[in-house]
Amino acid sequence: MDIDVLGLLAAAAGGFLGATFGALIAFVFVGLAVLVGVAVLIGTGDASFLGSVAFGSFLGPHVSFAAGVGAVAYAARRGYHDSGRDVVTPLVSLARPDVLLVGAAFGVFGYLCQGIIAVVPWLGSHTDRIALAVLVSALVARLAFGRSGLVGANSLGHTGWRRFAPNDTQAWLRYQERPAMVVLLGTFLGAVSASLAVTLLSAYPGATGVIYVGFAISAVSLAFLGVGVAMPVTHHITLVSAVAVAAVVARWSLLPAPVLILIGAGVGAITALVCEGFSRLWLIRGDTHIDPPAAAIWPMTTLSLVVVELLP
Questions:
Q1: N or C: which terminal CB in the chain sees fewer CB atoms within 10 Å?
Q2: Tens-digit pLDDT profile for residues 180-235
């Protein structure tokens, strides 16, 4: 496992910053950093900024975003804040040093978790390690600071499958929870991201990091969600679609662009449905945030890579 003192210190600082900003704002900065990293990659051919800063031990979602999630869960448990699921409020506003230090601790945990996943045989090279680390960190925060349990009780007293249905008091994004809307968003946003990936890979065939443009745009768009605009959450769709298309291009370079875009659209639709399923499994009835997009990204990335490998 490639862990060094500089990485640990950067993760502690990144976790502290993520708690200071709040998880959502920290993630928006990830998107901005990815855009800068792609620009540097296109201009110089150097992917260091993309790997070391945008997805690295300082700003990577497994550090900064996960730290914001863990810190607000702690703040709610201590009675400093009224919601352990609030990923929007900058936690510096609580004026509680211990909350920010918990963020630093979760930043280090996310860094170590990602490093451990990286050395797991097969899985480390067949999944999105950052997304899986975000999920593990959120599960730890729920178990450590939450009171609802992993699944939680239905506010209307429903049991069985009805327990998982959203309602007026237990929901994630009401405007994109219906299956038809989920599939529509997944299909078209997946196609958009796939189209961007195909176009940029054709122009810069040696710079695979260019596929993250769609993901970056999705991440930056969440800044509007933070100020109350009903924006769709789509970074899981744009990320997995681009990764799947890049894997297909690497395996079958002569496939025509329309086929690749259709593949991206299909992968996007499935990823969107998986994400909504995870939101209903352990977010909407829980008292801490377990991120549905991160929960969907890692298994869909694994599935996409495995399918590409198994096909002739």
A1: C
A2: 999 999 999 999 999 999 999 999 998 999 999 999 999 999 999 999 999 999 99
